[in-house]
Amino acid sequence: MLDDGRPIFQQIADQLESAILDGSLPEDGQVPSTTELAAFHRINPATAGKGVAQLVADGLIHKRRGIGMFVSAGARAQLQERRRQEFAREYVQPLLIRARQLEMDVEHVKSLLDACARSLPSGTTNPLNINEFRPLQTTRRSLS
């Protein structure tokens, strides 16, 4: 849940991003309201709103007046690209620097990655089960 030392609004934004990435919040799908997020996490609605506002500013979600917030078209691809760049910067570059220090060539690093990949169990990538919000969402009236 929320406890890793980073600001709570950032954790909310990251959890929503992860839900978009893994598909539990699909493009054009409705995002939990700030009230729902605040109630679920037992935080101030303004804090939840700040996390949601960050995603709006990034163009990942948008507001439909009188209906709620929805995942924007292309949000998943945008997040994937941003997270790939972050991954390269945070993990791949330091790995390659360390490999050079050990006089390992790229082919050796690739073979190590392949061996490690084969030994890993498959598992989920969603740190937040967005379906936990569904009971709150079912109380909403449909405007369609």
Describe the structure concisely.
By secondary structure, the chain is mainly α.
Helices and strands in order:
Blueprint: H1 8-22, H2 34-41, H3 45-57, E1 61-64, E2 68-71, H4 75-101, H5 106-119, H6 134-137
Antiparallel strand pairs: 1-2
Written overview of the protein:
With about 140 residues, the protein is mostly helical. The protein has 2 domains: about 70 residues, Arc Repressor Mutant, subunit A; about 45 residues. It contains 6 helices and 2 strands; from the N terminus they run H-H-H-E-E-H-H-H. It has a two-stranded antiparallel sheet with strand order 1-2. A hairpin with a 3-residue loop joins strand 1 and strand 2. It is elongated, with a radius of gyration of 19 Å. The two termini are about 35 Å apart. The C terminus is likely disordered.
CATH architecture label name of the largest domain: Orthogonal Bundle
Give the amount of beta strand, in percent.
5-15%
CATH-defined topology of the largest domain: Arc Repressor Mutant, subunit A
In CATH, the homologous superfamily of the largest domain goes by the name Winged helix-like DNA-binding domain superfamily/Winged helix DNA-binding domain
Q: What structural category characterises the helix and strand content?
A: mainly alpha
Number of domains: 2
The dominant shape is: elongated
Q: How many DSSP E strands?
A: 2
Amino- and carboxy-terminal Cα gap? 33 Å
Order of helices and strands: HHHEEHHH
The value of Rg in angstroms is 19 Å
Oligomer: single chain
The first-level CATH class name of the largest domain? Mainly Alpha
So how many helices?
A: 6
In spatial order, strands of the major sheet run 1-2
Instruction: Round the mean pLDDT to the nearest integer and report it.
Output: 86
Helical fraction equals 55-70%
Uncertain stretches = 124-144
Instruction: Describe the sheet with the most strands.
Output: 2 strands, antiparallel
